[in-house]
């Protein structure tokens, strides 16, 4: 037994020694320590990290371009992707699309409370008990469903009247039931110090003053996508109205918009992205609805709210050729919501404030609104065109459906890339391939992009940060040729990194080069990806196979 004990003791010591050697080896070879990057050493560090990567330059092959206009209906996900917080309780009912600030949770759930009570009150039409079904869906997305006729509900209550005008112009019968269900206004939030500075110079603060100060490069402001955001669309029309109230699409209005847009650092995909940029000091101001502003003590303490544009009073519309019975249900629901108890609840949730504010401009027809969106898309990056590199994960885990969906989403979404921009494509697994060098997005480059995407194949590990390093190097070289370009990186992946360089090695480089990195996860754990995107106020999107095309289309539409 003594000899056995000695043998066990020796084995334990040997095992400990082995673990110690492994631990020391890992400690000495680990690349996980943060790398300090400055403007002076960033190129040196970039080149050093790049030299560690096995980079292959693929032969470019042209693919066939689909020149047909984008089909919005085919890009939209199933309507079942959008939550129904209130279900109908009877066979006779109406379905209502509701904007998210009133059909969400907590203080964002005003209409849900009204609808729940309505459904329990035994309301009748023609002797039959009726109810409502509420679907939570952003106003811009709802408008896409309705205009494309992929799904038309019985009723629609967007944030503001602009979307109702657009559904009408889209050929869908749109009849007003109520001009206001619950009151709200959009506003420009300026840091208190910047607000006082602008007020001192101009003598007053209103939307026109702020817009002109922005055009004169006296402040830096961000706003949200006018294709998707009620506040963003409202601001776009306010800008055009400021410079020419009589002709929103005339040369004077367009010239004013270009001056304004030239000083916009970026258009945000979400309000959260704008808030993060404001916290980092990138922005002097941004836009937000009062209802959201009222629920954020940190914003109320540090920003001054200035209303602008048309009011966001949540009008209610009947859509399509619905029956008289359904119109009566919508009318009764609207009347029900106007009871004092529900309007008081709205006030408690942040609605019904700024009641004295009147809309700055009169009704704008849907055709003009659509033309204004197209103008925004065409003109927003003329002063500083974008150079973008797409970084695609082609590791083994992407094999089959994930890679097929990635390829499909890139091929369909590339229709939204502006011709004034330049793009390139990188793919990665264990190593990195440059599938398409950066080039102006001409028809030829578009054809090469399609060909490169179609040839992507999956195998190997996931060296995500190696792919990002190669993209940074490509963009660095591009900025040498054209210092006026604005660099952006888009990373498309399904999982966590398991090879190559680490986040700690790369994050200082991303920050030093000020390159926003937008990350799109395919059913992925996005913790590290969110960290990457937050470095330079970009956004991180978690998408599944059903909605990834629509989400990427929206992202490209905003950024490219």
Summarize the structure in words.
This protein is 45% helix and 17% strand. The strands form four sheets. The protein has a seven-stranded mixed β-sheet, sandwiched between helices. The protein starts with a helix and ends with a helix. The chain has 23 helices and 19 strands. Residues 387-560 form the VWFA domain. It comes from Sporolactobacillus shoreicorticis.
Number of helices: 23
Write down the overall mean pLDDT.
88
Q: Could you tell me the number of beta strands?
A: 19
**Rounded radius of gyration (Å):** 27 Å
Look at the helices and sheets and give the structural class: alpha/beta
Low-pLDDT segments, ≥5 res: 1-31
Largest sheet features? 7 strands, mixed
Biggest β-sheet: strands ordered side by side in the sheet: 1-16-15-14-17-18-19
- Separation of the first and last Cα atoms: 76 Å
Proportion of residues in helical segments: 40-55%
Question: What shape does the CA trace take?
Answer: globular
Strand content: 15-25%
Strand and helix map with partners:
Blueprint: H1 2-29, H2 42-51, E1 55-57, H3 72-75, E2 93-98, H4 100-103, H5 110-119, E3 124-125, E4 128-129, E5 131-136, H6 139-148, E6 155-157, H7 161-169, E7 174-178, E8 186-191, H8 192-202, H9 207-215, E9 221-224, H10 230-243, H11 251-261, E10 267-268, H12 271-279, E11 285-289, H13 290-294, H14 297-302, E12 303-307, E13 316-319, H15 324-337, H16 340-348, H17 366-379, E14 386-393, H18 401-413, E15 422-428, E16 432-440, H19 443-454, H20 464-481, E17 486-493, H21 503-513, E18 517-522, H22 527-534, E19 540-543, H23 548-559
Parallel strand pairs: 1-16, 2-5, 2-6, 9-10, 9-11, 14-15, 14-17, 17-18, 18-19
Antiparallel strand pairs: 3-4, 6-13, 7-13, 8-11, 8-12, 15-16
Helix pairs in contact: 2-20, 6-7, 7-17, 9-11, 10-11, 18-23, 20-21
């Amino acid at each position: 037994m003594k000899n056995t004990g000695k043998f066990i003791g020796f084995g334990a010591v040997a095992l400990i020694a082995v673990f110690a050697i492994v631990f020391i080896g890992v400690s000495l070879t680990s690349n996980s320590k943060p790398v300090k990057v400055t403007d002076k050493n960033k190129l040196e560090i970039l080149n050093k990290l790049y030299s560690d990567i096995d980079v292959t330059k693929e032969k470019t092959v042209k693919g066939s371009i689909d020149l047909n206009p984008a089909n919005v209906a085919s890009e939209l996900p199933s309507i079942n992707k959008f939550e129904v917080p209130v279900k109908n309780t009877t066979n006779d009912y109406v379905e209502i699309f509701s904007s998210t600030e009133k059909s969400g949770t907590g203080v964002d759930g005003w209409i849900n409370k009204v609808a729940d009570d309505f459904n329990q009150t035994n309301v009748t039409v023609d002797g039959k008990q009726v109810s409502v079904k509420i679907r939570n869906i952003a106003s811009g997305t709802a408008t896409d469903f309705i205009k494309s006729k992929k799904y038309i509900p019985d009723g629609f209550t967007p944030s503001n009247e602009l979307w109702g005008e657009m559904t009408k112009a889209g050929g869908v019968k749109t009849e007003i039931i109520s001009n206001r269900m619950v009151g709200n206004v959009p506003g420009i939030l300026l840091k208190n110090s910047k607000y006082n500075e602008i007020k001192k110079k101009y003598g007053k603060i209103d939307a026109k003053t702020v817009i002109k100060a922005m055009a004169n490069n006296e402040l830096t402001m961000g706003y949200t996508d006018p294709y998707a955001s009620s506040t963003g669309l409202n601001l776009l029309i306010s800008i055009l109205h400021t410079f020419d109230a009589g002709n929103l699409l005339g040369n004077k209005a367009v010239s004013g918009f270009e001056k304004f847009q030239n000083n916009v650092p970026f258009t945000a995909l979400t309000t959260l992205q704008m808030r993060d940029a404001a916290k980092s000091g990138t922005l002097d101001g941004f836009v937000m609805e009062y209802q959201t502003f009222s629920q954020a003590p940190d914003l109320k303490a540090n920003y001054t709210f200035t209303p602008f544009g048309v009011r966001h009073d949540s009008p209610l519309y009947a859509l399509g050729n619905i029956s008289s019975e359904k119109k009566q249900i919508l009318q009764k629901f609207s009347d029900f919501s106007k009871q004092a108890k529900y309007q008081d609840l709205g006030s408690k949730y942040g609605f019904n404030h700024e009641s004295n504010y009147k809309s700055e401009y009169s009704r704008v027809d849907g055709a003009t609104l659509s033309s204004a969106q197209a103008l925004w898309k065409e003109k927003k990056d003329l002063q500083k065109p974008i150079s973008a590199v797409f970084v695609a994960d082609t590791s083994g885990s992407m094999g089959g459906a994930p890679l097929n969906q990635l390829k499909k989403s890139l091929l369909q979404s590339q229709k939204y890339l502006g011709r004034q921009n330049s793009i390139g494509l990188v793919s990665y697994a264990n190593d990195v391939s440059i599938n398409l060098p950066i080039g102006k997005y001409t028809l030829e480059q578009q054809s090469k992009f399609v060909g490169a995407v179609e040839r992507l194949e999956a195998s190997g590990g996931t060296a995500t940060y190696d792919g990002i390093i190669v993209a940074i190097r490509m963009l660095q070289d591009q900025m040498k040729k054209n210092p006026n370009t604005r660099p952006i990186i888009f990373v498309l992946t399904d999982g966590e990194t398991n090879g190559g360089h680490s986040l700690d090695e790369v994050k200082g480089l991303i920050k030093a080069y000020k390159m926003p990195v937008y990350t799109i996860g395919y059913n992925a754990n996005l913790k590290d990806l969110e960290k990457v995107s937050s470095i330079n106020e970009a956004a991180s999107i978690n998408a599944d196979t059903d909605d990834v095309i629509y989400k990427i289309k929206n992202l490209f539409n905003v950024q490219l």
